[in-house]
Amino acid sequence: MKPCISIDVSKGKSYYQGFRGLNDPLAKARPMEHDKKGYEELVSFEEKLNAKPGNVTYVFESTGIYHRSLQNYLETRSKEYVILNPLTAAKVRKSKLRSTKTDQKDCQSIALAYYAQEYKPHDQRDTKYEELRARNREYLHQIQILRQLKVHFHNLLDIVFPKWDEAYPNPYTETSLALLKKYPHPEDMEKTKEESIAHYLEKTTRHRQVACVIEARKAKQYASRTISGCARNTVEAELLREAVNQVEEQMKRLDKCMEAMKSMVHEDPFLHQLKSIPGVGEILSIQLMAELGDLSRFLSSKKLVAYAGIDPIVYQSGKQTGEHLSITKKGNKNLRTLLYLAVASNIRSRNSNSILDFYNKKRQQAIPLAYRAAVIACANKLLRILYSMYRSGEDFKF
C-alpha cells in the first residue's frame, strides 16, 4: 500500500505522522496548526517519505466539522486522502491490552486502521449534496427555534386570551395571528365594531368579504364572554404581540429555507421516485435526499443501512442467541428520524403496500414485535427499497 500521512484532527490543531508502510513510522507525531503555514508544512512532509509525487495518501478521521478546513485544502491541491470512520480507529486502539489515548498515539491507530484493509480514496465532494445537507441542517435548527417560540407564545396566549383554542383550534392560521397582532387584549377586540374587524381582516388576509364577516363575528362573540388573566395595559399583552411577530417571522424563515431546497432538487428524478412512496410528501422527500446524499457512494444496501445506524446489534454468546437486540444507532440520526416519520406516515395511510404489509406481518407473527420495533424493521426495509429504486430508476412498487 502507499505511504501515508496519518492526521489526528481536533479543533484548531492536529498531530500528523508519516508512515512508509505498516509498522514503519517516520519520526514522531508532530503538531500542526490549522492555518496556511501549518498545512504547507504538512504537504512538504511528503518529501521526507521518499515517495513519488502524488503517491502519498493522507488519512484522517471524520469529525463532522473540524476536518473540513483540512479536507478543503487537500482538495484544492488535488491530494489523495481517505476519511475514516472514527469507530474504526477507536476499535484498533481498544484492541490493545493497555489502551492509552494520546494525540500522538492516535496517529498510529489511524495508520494501523488504514493499513488493516484497502480503502478507496475519497471522491471529490459533490457541492450539490453538501449544500443540500447544510440547508437541511439549518432547516432543522430553525424548527427547533420555532418550537421554543411556540411554547412561549402559548404561555402568553393562555394568560391574555384564555380558551382561544376553542375559537381557533389552530392558533397559527392567518386569521388568528392577524387578530392577535391587531388586538393584543380581549377588551380591545370587544370595544371594536364588528364591521371594523371584518374590514381589517379583508385587508390583511386572503379571505373574501363574507368569510371575514364570519370571522369577525366569531371574534366578537369570544371577546364578549372571556375574562382575561391580565389587565389591558400590562406587560403580558405587549409581550404577546411581540411573540406573534416572532412566530410569523420564524415561519417565513422556514418557508424561505424550504423553497431554497426545493429549487435545488425540483428537477432531480430521484425526488419524484421518493414522492411515489405512500405517506412521503414533497418536504419529507427533499429532507431524505439531503440526508441520504449521493447514493452511488454506497456499494450495497447493507452499507447504506449501516450509514443510517438501523442495522441490528449482533451479540451471540452461549445461551444468548443474539436475536431481537436493539439497533446500533451508530450512524446518521437525522436520517433515522426521517425514515421513522416516513414509515409512521405510511402506516397511518392504511393503503395496502409492501411496507404496510410488512408492518402487519411483524405485528401479527407468533411472537409479535412492539410498535416501535416493527416501525424500525420497516425503516430498514424502506431504506433497502430506496437503494433499489435509485439503482433501477423505477418508482415505488406497491
Please describe the topology of this protein.
Layout: E1 4-9, E2 13-21, E3 24-33, H1 36-44, E4 57-61, H2 68-76, E5 80-84, H3 86-94, H4 103-116, H5 127-160, H6 164-167, H7 174-182, H8 186-191, H9 194-204, H10 209-225, H11 235-265, H12 269-275, H13 282-292, H14 301-308, H15 333-349, H16 354-364, H17 371-392
Parallel strand pairs: 1-4, 4-5
Antiparallel strand pairs: 1-2, 2-3
Helix pairs in contact: 3-4, 5-11, 5-13, 7-11, 9-10, 12-13, 13-15, 14-17, 15-17, 16-17
What gap, in angstroms, lies between the N and C termini? 47 Å
The CATH architecture classification of the largest domain is Orthogonal Bundle
Q: Residue-averaged pLDDT, rounded?
A: 89
- Count of discrete domains: 3
Describe the main β-sheet briefly. Answer: 5 strands, mixed
Short account of what is shown:
With 398 residues, the chain is of the alpha/beta class.
What keyword list fits this structure?
398 residues, alpha/beta, Nucleotidyltransferase, domain 5, Helix Hairpins, 3 domains, 5-stranded mixed beta sheet, 58% helix
What do these coordinates show?
Strands 3-2-1-4-5 form a 5-stranded mixed sheet, with helices on both faces. The mean pLDDT is 89. It has 3 domains: 4-125, Ribonuclease H-like superfamily/Ribonuclease H (Nucleotidyltransferase, domain 5), CATH 3.30.420.10; 130-264, Helix Hairpins; 269-392, no CATH class. Helix 9 packs across helix 10 (209-225) and helix 15 crosses helix 17. With 398 residues, the chain is α/β, with parallel strands linked by helices. It is elongated and about 90 Å long. It is built from 17 helices and 5 strands.
